[in-house]
Design brief:
By secondary structure, the chain is an alpha+beta fold. The strands form seven sheets. It has a seven-stranded antiparallel sheet. Strands 17, 18, 19, 24, 25, 26 and 27 form a seven-stranded antiparallel sheet that branches. A hairpin with a 1-residue loop joins strand 3 (259-260) and strand 4. Helix 1 (16-27) crosses helix 4, helix 7 (131-148) packs across helix 9 (164-175) and helix 7 (131-148) packs across helix 10 (178-190). It is globular, with a radius of gyration of 24 Å.
């Protein structure tokens, strides 16, 4: 295995469309949640009386790198305010969560696992030298309590035990003490082994279970990658075996899984929870860093360029709880909800359209993706994901100018004070690769960079193709982008107060009501590709950076009985009911209402 190390937000800075995407996030809900949402604003983590469990750690896990990547001083001051309050409340024995001593045995210690991971993120961004000792004390106390039997893993902590290894690996590298490895073994022994649950993934049960909970599925994929070193176990790529099973029975066109709370099968109108998208992305980031296996980085792109922007409104003030691959409307379902266990508003956009976990947790998606652009080991620097950004270390500066994934051209400006090896991961779909104008093998590139200034230009082609999906449906893909028929819509705004929490513009609830046809099939495989340039909103439905015109015809698709706003799983008929039309498809992540999986009418 070829392990890679992440750079920090002090060394990587976003540029181009990526920086704009992070700015939109900071201007939206992420950057303002502590001002408007009681569970963050008045949290028990900072001495208030609201939720004192996962929501503040979830939010900080994304808010911290967002603040430091942008160098936003107001946000950084907010970070320090929250971290100072959390650190100052740490008890003498190391316990850090807002919980009375006599209540510890009943407190779900998933919050300990999460706050330690978040504190490490803060340390990486800030270099605050208090933090290693704070994490050390938290985990030493965790070890003492678990070993003595005063507490035990249960509920979420039992099913997310592997998350502890993010901070365990960190403190073992710093302190190297034996108890850390002992704690690793205790946690694994008390935690759940998902290899024993795979038979439950094969058919939707529509019953709420921890073992089929979609967010747990996204998280647990990194288990072996992050834990095998501390556990002194061999690495077997177990994540691939588990992912294959999940994909076979619950896969989506964007290479995530359906889970409208729990695994939901292969129906493209079933939902995928927002939390699951960002957690699966984080798992892939960690697996790639620990293994160097390129397939995880390519799958990361599929999620980051498609599922992540699709589940957020363009201004990122609102989000969905679940997104649909074939999403023809985002309206309250008037009868029982069409999901496995979620409510009738789960696919509408809002402050917290089902549960508030995603309100806090979606924040990590874009910042951590940005931090995956460049990685390093020994004397090699790797461009892992071709995101527009600048890497600036003490001895090397690399600026990457690119509009990837919308255009496949990359220009690297390198200024080095020493010699080093530079590697660029080339996606498997790349064709006709050119390096500085010369044709090259479409493999990962490696360069021996000398002291001084160097420029490297690379470009390649990606070809549109039909991606086979279940039920004789197909999705159009080019490179790491899926393409969908965008459906124009009217927005219906709803402002109200629920349980003391205000929803008002711009963080009120919205329903999206379709205005244009969506009942299409692909007529054939004739495509016209057009790059339009990237506007002020990179993932805009009205001004998408890239479009593909396809030959399509309308068919009798129909609605899923008894719903008025959910498409059927498959069309009633594939017989064309219109002439061939040139329909302009846009990237999946740009289309808030869309049809993605459709039949090919003339194969």
């Amino acid at each position: 295995m070829n392990k890679w190390n992440f750079y920090t937000s002090k060394e990587i800075k976003p540029e181009g469309w990526l920086r704009r995407q992070l700015e939109i996030q900071a201007e939206g809900l992420s950057g303002n949640l502590h001002k408007i949402w009681p569970d963050i604003r008045d949290s028990a983590w900072i001495g208030g009386n609201r939720e004192g469990w996962e929501r503040v750690p979830y939010w900080l896990d994304g808010f911290i790198p967002l603040a430091y990547l942008l160098g936003n001083e107001e946000m950084i001051a907010t970070v320090k305010k929250y971290i100072d309050a959390i650190v100052s409340a740490q008890e003498e024995d190391g316990w850090i969560c807002p919980c009375k001593k006599e209540e510890r045995a009943k407190y779900d210690t998933w919050a300990i696992q999460l706050i330690c991971k978040t504190l490490k993120v803060y340390y990486d961004c800030s270099g605050d030298e208090r933090i290693p000792d704070v994490i050390y004390k938290v985990l030493k106390n965790y070890y003492d309590l678990l070993k003595s039997g005063e507490i035990a893993l249960f509920k979420w902590g039992k099913y997310r035990w592997f998350e502890t290894f993010i901070s365990l690996n960190f403190i073992y590298e710093k302190y190297g003490e034996d108890w850390i490895k002992e704690l690793a073994k205790i946690i694994k022994k008390q935690g759940f082994d998902y290899n024993t649950a795979t038979d439950l993934w094969e058919k939707p049960s529509h019953t709420w279970r921890m073992t089929t909970h979609i967010v747990n599925m996204g998280m647990m994929l990194k288990t072996e990658a992050v834990s095998h070193d501390l556990l002194d176990e061999p690495y077997t790529d177990n994540a691939e075996k588990l992912r294959e099973i999940l994909d076979k029975y619950n896969g989506t066109a964007f290479e995530g899984f359906t889970g409208d709370e729990v695994l939901s099968g292969l129906d493209p109108t079933k939902g995928t929870e927002c939390c699951a998208v960002v957690e699966q992305m984080y798992s892939y980031e960690e697996i790639f860093a620990h293994t160097g296996d390129n397939k995880w980085a390519e799958r990361l792109e599929m999620l980051g360029f498609n599922a992540l922007p699709a589940t957020l409104s363009e201004d990122m003030w609102t989000h969905q709880y679940v997104q649909q691959v074939n999403q023809v409307a985002c309206q309250k379902t008037m009868i029982m909800a069409p999901w496995s266990t979620n409510g009738p508003y789960a696919h509408t956009f809002g402050l917290e359209p089902n549960f508030g976990c995603c309100t806090a947790n979606f924040n990590q998606g874009w910042p951590k993706f940005a931090l995956s652009a460049f990685m390093h080991n020994d004397d090699t620097i790797l461009n892992a994901v071709m995101l527009p950004s600048v890497l600036n270390t003490d001895e090397v500066k690399i600026k990457l100018e690119t509009n990837y994934p919308f255009e496949n051209k990359m220009h690297y400006y390198i200024d080095a004070e020493k010699e080093f090896n530079f590697a660029i991961r080339i996606p498997t779909f790349a064709k006709k690769l050119k390096v500085n104008g010369e044709i090259a093998e479409a493999n990962d590139l490696k360069f021996a960079i000398e002291q001084g200034k160097t420029e490297i230009e690379i470009e390649f082609e990606a070809t549109p193709f039909f991606k086979k999906r279940p039920n004789d449906l197909y999705a159009l893909q080019m490179g790491s982008l899926l393409f969908s028929v965008p459906i124009e819509y009217e927005k219906e705004m709803r402002e109200y107060v629920k349980k003391g929490v205000e929803r008002k513009f711009p963080y009120c609830d919205y329903q999206f009501i379709p205005k244009t046809p969506w009942n299409y099939g692909f007529s054939n495989d004739g495509f016209e590709i057009k790059f339009n340039g990237i506007g002020n909103t990179p993932f805009s439905q009205n001004t998408p950076p890239l479009t593909i015109k396809a030959n399509m015809q309308q068919i009798n698709w129909g609605l899923k009985f008894p719903y008025r706003s959910i498409a059927r799983k498959t069309p009633k008929s594939t017989k064309p009911i219109s002439d061939v039309q040139k329909i302009e498809l846009c990237p999946y992540g740009c289309a808030r209402l869309r049809m993605t999986e459709m039949p090919v009418l003339r194969k």
